[in-house]
Amino acid sequence: MDYLFLLFAFICGLSVKLIGIPPLVGFLIAGFVLNGLGYAMTDQLQQIADLGITIMLFCIGLKLNVKDLSKREVWLCSTGHMLIWIGVISVALYGIATLFSSFMGILSFPSAMLIAFALSFSSTVCVFKVLEESGEAKTRHGKVAIGILVMQDVFAVLFLVAATGKLPSVWAFALLAIIPLLPLLNKLIDRSGHGELLPLTGVVFALGGYHLFELVNIKGDFGALLMGIMLAKHAKATELSKSLLSFKDLFLIGFFLSIGLTALPDFGMVMAAVILCVFIIIKLVLFFGLFAVLKLRVRTNYLTSLIMSNFSEFGLIIGALAVSQGFLEPRWLVILALAVSFSFVITSISYRSSHAFYLDIKSYIMRFERKERLPGDLYPVVSQAEFLVIGMGRVGLGAFNSLHSLAGDRVWGMDADQSKIRMLKEQGLNVICGDGEDIDLWQNIDISGVKLILLALPSIEDATNITQQLKFCGFKGKIAAIARYEDEVPALLQQGVDKVFNFFTEAGLGFAEESLAYVNTMYEQPDTQ
């Protein structure tokens, strides 16, 4: 039966992808269709869903810098947003339930506050998946969003402890013993190599953190997240996260299916969920207003607010707890499940066109930008640059080094990952931190002398967006890009890229040329005997 669930999820995911909609929307649809056909959640599918969330939180921890949580725009916005949201939405829910009791049912004010609290969280699963698919997890807005999500996870854990009365065991202090064990854990990662043992190591650590925290009456997913954070400084943290990518995506299919299989809604429940989704507009405006007060640059503000404007799987957990303790009617769990599902669809679709839409509304929202700049929002400076490599991963760094050997300091590199840029600067390289899809960046740095920009990026969508931004800003030089697959080459050329290199073909050609040059050098050496 679980195979049939996954097969149907594949069919729905592929179907929506063919019309340009993210597959996760298809997975959600599959869950509701299966529910309508009379199928119910199984223990095996629930285990798959739980494992997907655990591995995902572990991967988030691997990419998180604890210093990001201490930034004012993270902790102050997450706290302020939750408090204001609960106050506003509680009153709105109570009033709407009074007017539309046929849809909403009879709702007391304490129940309205509980629902508002459940809806205050943004979805860790949805946000991280969308950021990861767009390659923006380490951008400025991506890191702010993930930081707020982690703060919200902390609030959720504290609430669950208070609501259930399930206090952590006295043995919870023993978890501090993990800290002196970190060198041993790091050595285990070193010894795991680069093959099939590496993802298994990640799964063991993620589940280990989960079960250790469960043993002392603390939510296990929080333990997986903290385990990832503690290992984030390891040199192989990024590689470990990438090795778990396929497993995480596969297991998360179970999570999206499980939402649809929660319960079968009626018309009134659907209408109530739609009403709740209208509140997403309030969530977006509230985030935008708080970020503006905290002096975030308007583009960072807009993208972070947009991707955080959804409801969370934590809302379902809180709703289930409230129903089990008699604080809410059972129908509210179905309504919350529908609202969460609809919000996932809204975010996954709206964010795909977010960068293009920003160009349309930029002139209207720029009035909310403060003149003062936070340290993370200062524009970088490039000087005497003729070649610019965007994306300083393995391919980009290799291209940078090759060009640097020919053109010296006229070669510059750019990446959105601040920690990576900091490390490269320490090596004496000319690099800047920036998001290539940021139109404001290109309008505020001088690239008039740049002759060639190389897009060493894994995503064709990112390369396409950056090309459009550069063309919009009047860039006169040439643009080259990397394609991983042959069918991506004509698509990039059609979007205005001047030269596209097939990654695997060019790598093979370069390997052959280097090998041939090495052999010729050997034969040209004089006989010393």
Please sum up the structure shown.
This protein has 529 residues and is mainly alpha-helical. 66% of the residues lie in helices and 5% in strands.
CATH domain class of the largest domain: Mainly Alpha
Mean pLDDT, to the nearest integer, reads 84
Low-confidence stretches: none
> Proportion of β residues?
under 5%
Instruction: List the strand order in the largest sheet.
Output: 3-2-1-4-5-6
CATH topology of the largest domain: Na+/H+ antiporter like fold
Largest sheet: 6 strands, parallel
How many domains, as an integer? 3
Please state the second-level CATH architecture of the largest domain: Up-down Bundle
Task: Report the count of strand segments.
Answer: 6
Oligomer: single chain
| Number of continuous helical runs | 25
C-alpha Rg, in Å? Answer: 25 Å
Helix-strand makeup class: mainly alpha
Molecular shape: globular
What does this protein look like?
This protein is mainly alpha-helical. The protein folds into 3 domains: 37 residues, no CATH class; 322 residues, Na+/H+ antiporter like fold (Up-down Bundle); 146 residues, NAD(P)-binding Rossmann-like Domain (Rossmann fold, 3-Layer(aba) Sandwich), CATH 3.40.50. It is 66% helix and 5% strand. It has 25 helices and 6 strands. A 6-stranded parallel β-sheet has the order 3-2-1-4-5-6, sandwiched between helices. Helix 5 packs across helix 7 and helix 7 runs antiparallel to helix 17. The radius of gyration is 25 Å and the shape is globular.
